[in-house]
Write a structure and sequence with these properties.
The protein is mostly helical. The protein has one domain. Helices cover 79% and strands 0% of the residues. The protein starts with a helix and ends in a 7-residue tail after the last helix. It comes from Rhodococcus rhodnii LMG 5362.
């Protein structure tokens, strides 16, 4: 049972992030690019938080470099995307 949990856990982390990213792409394809950008930024922030709280083994593909670098980069990029999505003038669109 323990071996199964270790094998599934890394997959669940990336699947959770990918599900949110698919929702973001759905918004963009539905011509709601600002909402899509916001959700994409949230997905990147979720990836950063997961990288922070999960062990290196459980982080799976979210582990690229050292934990501090991964967390800092993901949170900075995700935060920037969210900030831009909420601060850009809608120009008549949502």
């Amino acid at each position: 049972m323990v071996a199964v949990r270790r094998e599934v856990s890394p997959k669940l982390a990336i699947v959770a992030v990918l599900v949110v990213m698919v929702v973001a792409v759905g918004f963009v394809l539905a011509d709601r690019w600002r909402r899509g950008a916001f959700v994409l930024g949230v997905a990147v922030v979720i990836a950063g938080v997961l990288r922070l709280v999960l062990s290196d083994e459980a982080a799976g593909i979210l582990q690229v470099r050292s934990k501090p670098f991964d967390v800092g980069a993901l949170l900075a990029v995700g935060g920037a995307i969210v900030f831009l999505a909420v601060s850009i003038d809608p120009l008549g669109t949502d």
